[in-house]
Amino acid sequence: MTGLLDRFGRRATDLRVSLTDRCNLRCSYCMPPEGLPWLPQPDVLTDDEVVRLIRVAVERLGVTEVRFTGGEPLLRPGLVEIVRSAAALRPRPRIALTTNGIGLDRRAADLRTAGLDRVNVSLDTLRADRFVRISHRDRHDDVLSGITAAASAGLTPVKLNAVLLRGINDDEAGDLLAYALAHGYELRFIEQMPLDAQHGWTREGMITADEVEAALRTRFGLTPDPGPRGGAPAETFLVDGGPAKVGIIASVTRPFCGDCDRTRLTADGQVRNCLFATQESDLRTALRSGADDEELAERWSRAMWMKKAGHGIDNPDFLQPARAMSAIGG
Question: Looking at the DSSP assignment, which residues form a beta bridge with residue 98?
Answer without folding.
Answer: 120
